[in-house]
Amino acid sequence: MIKAPRGKSFFLFGPRGTGKTTWVKANFPKALYLDLLEARLFNDLLADPQRLDGLIPRGFSDWIVIDEIQRVPELLNEVHRLIERDGYRFVLTGSSPRAIRRKGVNLLAGRALSYHLFPLTAGELGKDFNLDHSLIYGQLPSAYREKDPAAYLESYLQTYLEEEIRQEGLTRNLGAFSRFLEAASLSQASVLSVSAIARDCSVERKVVENYFAILEDLRIAYRLPAFTKRAKRRLAVHPKFYFFDVGLYRTLRPKGPLDLPEEIGGHAFETLFMQELMAVNAYLRLGYNLYYWRTATNAEVDFVLYGAKGIKAFEVKRTGKITGSMLRGLKLLAEDYPAARLYFIYGGKRRMREGEIEILPVKQALRELPEILRQ
How many whole angstroms separate alpha carbon 9 and alpha carbon 31? Predict the structure, then answer.
């Protein structure tokens, strides 16, 4: 859903596996392509970022792609100089702008746009979209393409631990980080308790906070804040937690006789809708901020989108049967925010309405989500 800009340099951020390289090569086939995962190139440019100038042929007028720019963030000063001196146009891919900023480097002082790539959306998959497949394996491109998506996801997780975490020196204790990932998966789609996870992992709370920062830097997880604007009642204030893709969550989530399949499936259903909200909002550049809403009496709305286009609230349930209690959170939120547009997304097949609440089957909701968010 990203449209390639034609005039100005830009960043393309997103976790590994979302298809950044494939997208860039498809949209910029004549570009000079520099991959910082190549050891020799990485070492050369790390030693002296000004060597970048010598890699560009004289008179070159097409785009220059630098893949995995966060590996040598000091290159951005040289990129900045070359944009100013020669008018070169760059595509700079990486995991996250936060990962670069944390190393004390600016993002070209506004001289480059920023785009983000997410797992595939239902709209991008089109006729290939399979709800049951997505709820188990997620929507990373290879999870749809590989013959054994479960094996791919196990390999993907190992790749992140081995390549992204260890090579970048983000944490010295890979074993503790691995235990943390499993413990964090138990908090998927739930209000987050950092202290509880620290106890489960037998590490200090400060260390766990750092681990969560790593996940957010790499854009493989989000902490969703509580919506408290002009609150009229006492509300929860701690964030909810989500891994960025259903497949990653289900790969990390422990499974055993005490792990209820309906709980795992319900969290997967909610996660799938969350990642679609994130992607559509970003690709259409709609400018919503994403929250959840929960009262002190545990009435909850899974997602609240707030922005210049108004307030939209979504409650998401895997069930095919709707009870009145499932709509309670939306009705309470409407009392406090009468202008909010209310949606209940469920696993049934009938489109309905109850008062101001529009009730949509999940497949229909995903198909119509771009138009719903534009309104």
Answer: 13
